[in-house]
Write a structure and sequence with these properties.
- 4 copies of one chain form a homotetramer.
- With about 350 residues, chain A is of the alpha/beta class.
- The first copy, chain A, has helices at about 10-25, 50-55, 110-120, 145-160, 190-200, 215-225, 255-260, 270-275, 280-290, 315-339; strands spanning about 1-5, 30-35, 40-45, 60-65, 85, 90, 100, 125-130, 165, 180-185, 205-210, 235, 265-270, 295-300.
- The first copy, chain A, has an 8-stranded parallel beta barrel, surrounded by 5 helices. Chain A has a 4-stranded antiparallel β-sheet with strand order 2-3-1-4. In chain A, strands 5-6 form a two-stranded antiparallel ribbon.
- In chain A, a hairpin with a 5-residue loop joins strand 5 (about 85) and strand 6.
- In chain A, helix 5 packs across helix 6.
- In chain A, about 60% of the residues are buried.
Chain lengths: ~350, ~350, ~350, ~350
């Protein structure tokens, strides 16, 4: 950590502050005097230092971290890729391409089993489906809830596909015991109480990036889960909020290589929510795979026009089949290239 | 709601769609044919219509709401200002200026009682203080928790000031029973499960705007609470996330008159979090009052340099006293003007 | 164009306004009465209507365009792709992948000729290089200017590669007569005087997207050039400004399929400026090609560490060679897929 | 400037790099070794160092400026406020409140003279009016151009009010010789060629902040003008682009105190463009004055509904009179407070 002091900070204050830093945080402090300012360099483990505490000093001009504030999620300390293996042997993060597919909301047994069979035939290895739905409006359909979870399990039984579905409060964790991957939605990325509780389980967690979360904040949310002992975190880029309003969100495709550089965790991409438009799913999914994503999560609905939520961004099974074929071919071509 | 169909939508499809809209949503549908597109106008209560459902139709080019999607929070249907009265008779939303002040985190009885007395002397009518703290890092101080709540009550007993403090999960609602105003933090603005539970209480709720929430989404979150039966919502603008990185957030001062125009709910402003810098609190607080805010929530700490969290943006009691005096004088001048 | 009137707009005002619209703009006006508002639908050519004029009426609640405000750049009216052919037969927009490569700034004959030969060998078909450099600081190197243009021509003579370079003011247009593609930088995307003058030439124009331009504004800037008679516009996505600060800009990869859907103009991508980091150029370029870009513009410098500007994002010739090979292989794989 | 090297940077590379920095930039370099990284501290004048050059080194992890990159605009080196005095004795930046008012576009002699008289009566000290208009669409009204300038001079003759109007290209500078304040629009804030030419004049320049310019970039654009020898720069905050779409832009009210802290230049605020809505002009103008703005620039039109551009945000003369009265009363109250 590097601290720049204000030009008018006295020698006495500087000395006091250095002593305080050493005593409180067990770090070494190097000092050098610039033309206008004095600069302090802290050496040691600075993750416990609250950067706001430093910034609070009225004689501090600015502070900069040299070390990232996350440890367990940091590739520097865990150079090997984390690979998450599911019950059916599917591995996420091992260099393969895994596709999670299914409807935004589970609506009926017929619907979810039908879609599950269809997406499995198209190559999807994981079934997605919402049972508890976070909706902007209290007057919108909020999901089938517990019944939806049961239907997902039926679909799993029928197809062998592991299931991923969103949790919305920590008191539901028991209910999600038999879910294969628990999803934390973008709006709950900094619901720290939920993250802490999920950290006590050993379930794979699909952690969506918040609507306006920086990559560092996103990794810090992964760190919350991992700090509790659960290292099975899958990061999911789903578009960020920008001024551009043609799409619902702006897919931050650069987040894929950046996360893979900063962290050892796998990264999947949600092109459906990133764009909000079915016709953009294919090009965004292709871009994500080309940029190195470990997987995709794609909305598929047998009847998007009558979907109870988010129909606009759902592919039909036939469209999905075509897109999945292209994605696997692309992945093949990329893999050959790497040989 | 206005729906623009794509140029190539057939007459048959158009007719079917109009029938479906009438049947499902009990609305009247007007049609007119433009040069390139057909436009449908829906008349009736369209708040229950999922705009995504409409957008999902592959023959729909775009959709636009005419009516706002919130009802209980909407000034159109409740022209009079909502005024929230606290135990000590303090009213928020009645044209007066109320200042909530106190430390980011409660740290000790001495600290919180001392600050409470001091801010009361300076004119604050409500005591703020964090017991449960949402922190970006799992390694940062997370608040004194239940003990912090107890200390806040001690400070209330000592000064008579009602207290406002942040809740982080719905299972804590009972614990917050004796809190005067329950704060929902920016990161939980769309924690819908929490909002629903708070809707079942009759506590005043201070609902902070999410980091990148639109004004409409913010009002929809208020609607979540109100839909449950709790109309005591106070909206709190605390800066939004933009590309500008000199300040932690960008205070959206225009949100004040906009919210007061769209809704009947009171609006307060948090200049401390909006800027993240103590020296900006005064000018931003002045701007907020001049723009019509019903109140302010300001961080005050007896020793900001040693505050356990967010010290950078805290005023000392002496600084706060000076700022509060200026704010009340400004409010006086503005009130005289309105006469 | 659809206009929603305020609930309290009188019948008389409505009638007057409709008459005014018909008279001034030669459009047909349809009216229908909703529960709370009256809605007007305008039929005819509304591109000449200033949407702000409509919004100015104090009895207007909101306005929405149904038709896009651009005509010449609009795919609706020009369904076929625009293909731009350069002197050496290179075609942009015909389904092939064209790579423009070269240094940020031209520095010397040896440098630019050397790089030109090298990137040509690696498969680049166009040479890029800055002679006039827009720099944030007046104290930074501003380019070799006219001398830089001469050196680019030398490099063209030595390699046969057409050249693309940035113009910064309209009085330089004559000087750019022999340039093959004139680049308009992001900061000048709405320098309308420059766009108008470029519209009077018949040069291919590489129009970079502004730092915070919407896709519609970008297309309107293309329309400025085309309105003058020059249809040879190539759009260049180069990252947009968002709150995320890990990268200099955020590549908006979805802009590629969106622009190709809304417009018939070719789209190329600048992964170097989008990321500001050399190690991100490869994954972003791969993503751009997978998403359907017609070309790329990539910074290559023989000695990035000593580059006079923007070295951080430049590849060495050896790195570029490796990246270009991967890009062409990817393009091949994608083309086979389409067969 | 502080440079953090990557963990794997060899001692030899570090030494070479330090030598190169000392030789090329005449700075002293301090080194210290952290646990994971080596950090270099550069002492001396670093404004000439291209931060991208440093960042380009593949062994550099990150770079941070300690000194601001602007010198002439920097309050550190020029502690006293710059006060700009106009022909009629009006001073901007001396602690007074100056209001510039007038129509978005000059339309006729009658219009501009009428408005000029009216706003003068209401207390405005400067007349604004657009002769050359930057418009997003090539099909929109582009201003009366030279004729508009003549009409502004007529209005100045009739009222004695100095005039401010926007320039759009450097070849027009001669034509603007008799204009009192030359405005550079938001879209031209980084039209560096224009800035350089304006730097050679001694005209007061009203420099609007770019749509997505950081405060530092804005000050760097002021530096461009000042580097040429013209110190008469007035900064104008006019709202920045954010994801919020209720208003056209988001007024960054915190920019006022920040700019006044970083720089000695005066700051005025444009509440008309910041909001795009007439009813928001008053609260935003009040906020700006309360936050310390030196002036305001407000659109006034005798007939906003028929204004040829930007009518939506224009006040009528009667509305302006009421707003101006409130603003001056507020300023009075604030001034008394400061005594």
């Amino acid at each position: 950590m590097i601290i720049v002091l204000k030009p008018d900070c006295s020698q006495q204050k500087t000395d006091e502050f250095c002593r305080l830093l050493k005593d409180n945080y067990n770090v070494k402090v190097n000092t050098w005097n610039g033309v206008h300012s004095t600069v302090l360099g802290l050496i040691g483990d600075t993750t416990a230092i609250d950067i706001d505490y430093i910034d609070a000093q009225d004689f501090v001009e600015s502070v900069k971290r040299v070390q990232e504030p996350y440890k367990k999620a940091n590739r520097k300390f865990h150079p090997d890729n984390t690979v998450i293996e599911l019950a059916n042997g599917v591995k996420i993060g091992d260099g393969s391409l895994q596709i999670m597919a299914g409807p935004c909301s589970v609506e009926s047994e017929e619907q979810i089993v039908g879609i599950a069979k269809s997406v499995k035939d198209s190559g999807a290895s994981i079934l997605r489906g919402g049972a508890f739905k976070p909706r902007t409006s209290p007057y919108s359909f909020q999901g089938l809830k517990a019944e939806g979870l049961d239907l997902l399990k039926e679909a799993r039984k029928a197809t062998g596909l592991p299931i991923v579905t969103e949790i919305m409060k920590e008191s539901h964790i028991d209910m999600f015991e038999s879910v294969d991957i628990i999803q934390v939605g973008a709006r709950n990325m900094q619901n720290f109480e939920l993250l802490k509780e999920l950290g006590k389980t050993n379930k794979p967690i699909l952690l969506k990036r918040g609507l306006s979360a920086t990559i560092e904040e996103w990794l810090m949310s992964a760190e919350y889960i991992m700090a509790g002992g659960n290292n099975n975190v899958i990061l999911c880029e789903r578009g960020i909020r920008t001024y551009e309003n043609f799409t619902r969100n702006t897919l931050d495709v650069s987040a894929i290589p950046i996360v893979k550089s900063l962290s050892h965790l796998p990264v999947v991409v949600d092109p459906s929510h990133a764009s909000g438009k079915a016709w953009l799913v294919e090009p965004l999914a292709m871009a994500a795979v080309a940029a190195g994503a470990d997987g995709l999560i794609i909305e598929v609905h047998n009847d998007p026009a009558h979907a109870l939520s988010d129909g606009a961004q759902s592919l039909t099974p036939a469209q999905f089949d075509k897109v999945a074929k292209k994605l696997f071919k692309l992945k093949d071509a990329l893999s050959r290239e790497d040989d």
